Amino acid sequence: MGSVVSRFNRVRGKGKSEEERRLRANDRSFNLSHGYANNAIRTSKYSIFTFLPLNLFEQFRRLANAYFLFLLILQLIPQISSLSWFTTAVPLVFVLSISAVKDANDDINRHKCDRQVNNRKVDVLMDGQLKNEKWMNVQVGDIVKLENNEFVTADLLLLSSSEPLNLVYVETAELDGETNLKVKQALTATGELEDNIEALAAFNGEVRCEPPNNRLDKFKGTLTMNDDIYALDNDKMLLRGCTLRNTEWCFGLVIFGGPDTKLMQNSGKSVFKRTSIDHLMNILVLCIFGFLGFMCAIMAILNAFWEASEGSLFTVFLPREAGIDAHLSSFLTFWSYVIVLNTVVPISLYVSMEVIRLGNSFFINWDRKMYYPKNDTPAQARTTTLSEELGQIKYIFSDKTGTLTQNIMTFNKCSINGKTYGDLYDFSGQRVEITERTERVDFSWNNLADPKFSFHDHSLVEMVRSGNPENQEFFRLLSLCHTVMPEEKKEGELNYQAQSPDEGALVTAARNFGFVFRSRTPETITVIEMGKQVIYELLAVLDFNNVRKRMSVIVRGPEGKLTLYCKGADTIILERLDPSCNKLMKLTTNHLNEYAGDGLRTLALAYKDLDESYMKDWTQRHHEASIAMEEREEKLDELYEEIEKDMMLLGATAVEDKLQDGVPQTIEQLAKADIKIWVLTGDKQETAENIGYSCNMLREEMKDVFFVSANTAEGVKEELLNARRKMCPKAAEEPSVTTSRGGLFWVEKMETVQDEKVDGEYGLIINGHSLAFALEKNLRLELLRTACMCQTVICCRVTPLQKAQVVQLVKKYKQAVTLAIGDGANDVSMIKAAHIGVGISGQEGMQAVLSSDFSFAQFRYLQRLLLVHGRWSYIRMCKFLGYFFYKNFTFTLMHFWYAFFCGFSAQTVYDEWFITFYNTIYTALPVLGLSLFEQDVNDRWSLQHPQLYTPGQKNQYFNKKAFVRCVMHSCYSSLILFFIPWASMHDTVRDDGKDIADYQSFALLAQTCLLIVVFAQLFLDTYYWTAINQLFVWASIAVYFAITFTMYSSGMFLIFTSAFPFTGTARNSLNQPNVWLTIFLSSLLCVLPVVAFRFILIQLRPTINDEVRAKARKEALPAPAPRRTLKKRITRRSGYAFSHSQGYGALVMSQKFLLKGHMRRLALFDHRDSPMVQNQPQHYRTITEESESQSP
């Protein structure tokens, strides 16, 4: 009943924008009165009752379908039609039915998915007890219970959990494609409810919060409970699409349900995408209608003149029907010619286009070179109507995490005491490339080693096991200086919960080299050092933030020694070292430069021995600074700076943010194809910049890389202007914008920002705050202008909405075809905004795949999708359209010339059966063979010469000019094919002296000449012949003559006298030499100019396709491109391995860690003192100070 009321209120309130959401826990009647959506989702487009009208409406929006419906109505009028009504009705119903069945099948699958999700079960607190309910019946304000590994039902406010400090761990792969677990924390006030059903049932807190929106990273609201008001933020929300991990149970309050959840808000509505060729076709069809009307008008006018001058002479033996005079006859003639000449746009054109697209989609699905065996994931064309658009991509917008990278960090190399480890060398001192077959270090001596960890340099293990003090201190630092939390379900089976994969990789490396981080309490850290347990007293954590770019811990060893361990960005650490480290610093700096040259993320490690008396004094001063009311942050920073100086350098680490296989090579290939790639990521600037260098998008040889990071609109404008002026000093201050008209009736105003040439290559990196200003109306053209001058654009810290806005900006002002690729729900809006959306499947997140047009498992398959399948699909479609219009215009225009010899009476020049079979039997299969199998060069040549892709971007193969050339070619061919047979048959006799200059013989000769010429043109247009092509062509010719001789036989005439009047014509005409000579002469005159023109064009202005084809004929087939790793030697370090946020230091030292007796592991966040809760700056705090300042 509740869902019905919710739906009714939803409809009643439709149109009213929700400004604020207000709800009460456990009060359905109050919440239903606001008309909030329940938790049922619907991604389907139709219902049983709406399918037929809505589907027909969508199909008749296509101009050609509406045109054929109009023709059908005309054919129902006997005074006009010279053809039976079913000649149009049958193919029209067939086309509509096929499209309807396809749409129905797609929608049935959506309904099945919806039902599967809506019928999932969850425990809901109702009437004081937990009841197992379907997801679709969950309402806003309900309290639900989730258990480990369950999907989050709706957008929930976390109330309590089984974990210490009311924490939960969630996997957000469906939302952002990231695999590392996120931590959420409930309020202390609600956490006290725990799993007490009575207390939860009595909970009546009231929530006021923002209305439904698509911002995945933000939430604002308040909870009123017992007259106290608590602030709510995103860290207390569990979003639909997440999965609960490593948490026994938790309770949550439903804030948003079903279509209001952030997951569904990001999914948006299904967008009907149409290719640029579809849009062009609509315009061309409109032009053809005009051309058709023009021809029919000429025929009608000439018919009026003919009826007035000549027609009256025939009325003696051919009297007119009653009430019809010359003027009415002319009017009827107009509509008769509309029917006769309608073959300029045959319905088979659209059927063939759909078949071609379907075939190209199957080729993508069947391509074994795009199959990923590791996950058993093939490439999939989820949309069958966009294949040729893949051959015209100009801009690619890519997510980073999970798309370019695997979101896996690996400990790759390190430098310890001036010696580098991680590389392998042969006997001659040459570095050896490490592959999967390279022997790995054996860690079997360490019972607690991670079996998944891989390292290849045996010398490092030998140094550590030999007791080298510097090496052991290096890994001791890595095992102590972090905020990682351990979990040990079984003895020896350690699992680290790290807030960033960087820290997890470093702690795991220390674990494998004999320094195993085993457990922690707020006061201690337990480490197994080379098999011996050592407990360190944790005195302080100087936490990381984006300004400090480092973190430190102060520990007391078992012997009472005080040590500060510090790790951070190398540029920060190196300037805080003791002067005695200068020599070591130079060696380490060289190693850091080498690591950066390999695209690795680096950290420098240092330590400092502390004096007991100094530490006591420093602690007292820190306590005073931490409670200061004024300039607290500045005083704390001074203390941090004071203690973190004169440190001793230990070495450096190099962590690889593992790219997906083949990413740099793919980007290099796409760049050669003149495709621009923009990276839109939610990661911070340093991480995105580092990946840019790793992917070969940012290169040292670039003249400059510009950073736009201002926090004001004026600042952003100034930075964009400075960048543009440096790239192109002579450019005009205002962008060059050309305005044109487009669309179906040229009513759509189109603005295009012209490209500007610059000398050299540049890069642009802009963060989310600056991008928000740059996307405003007065700055967006400046942003677009500056960005398009750059070879590489990286946008960091962007929201899903900003991703879509960037795509729409390029679509609107560049008039270029765009492609967006991603793997998470935060990429869905971008994927739907672009012309083509690609989802990375086989990864953890599938939300992007469900909204995509194409999907595959690895980014590297994108080059094959575009450079091979996309280019071939575009070429095939263009050749198909050019050839189809040629053969049909030639076919139709012969009616036009014949009108001058038949009194403009709308008589057809061909046999009626030839008209019926021309597009459906005689020419259907050969043109499909051309359109499905055509290749200008094979896939290896296509990948070896990415420049072959550029003509598609410029729309060179089929456009309005190409269409006009096609029409002119058809006019010439139709003139030849009509007048040559007419002249040769005029006053001609057979060998036996009998007359063959009759209508039936002429019709047979004309249609045979036509068929031979269109097949000859097909031979000229085909570059790639297969057995199927050959079969289709020769079989079609054989079928034509077989049908002709059968239908023109005496037997058929005797059986169906009125249907087959051409008795004996084929037998009497085709045995004459002059008929075959006429066929040969007509074909030669039609084909020879085409051959001559193409020969001259290739000699004078060869295209890139001509050159590569000539090269392919002379040279052997190129070998497949080897799988190689591109090593980019750069001198700057673009990032450092530290991707978590500030705020974790105080949590690992919280006295509240051990509140719950059934704790399974230690957790990260103190719900009371965490700056994430209070939205305050993070400050250092010692254990003793914490207990003193603890507030009740």
TrEMBL record:
Residues 24-88 form the P-type ATPase N-terminal domain. The keyword Transport applies. Residues 622-649 form a coiled coil. GO terms for molecular function: ATP binding; ATP hydrolysis activity; magnesium ion binding; phosphatidylcholine flippase activity. Residues 849-1103 form the P-type ATPase C-terminal domain. Its EC number is 7.6.2.1. The gene is LOC102210214. Belongs to the cation transport ATPase (P-type) (TC 3.A.3) family. Type IV subfamily. ATP binds at residues 399-401, 503, 544, 567, 601, 681-683, 797, 803, 826-827. Residues 118-184 form the P-type ATPase A domain. This is Phospholipid-transporting ATPase.
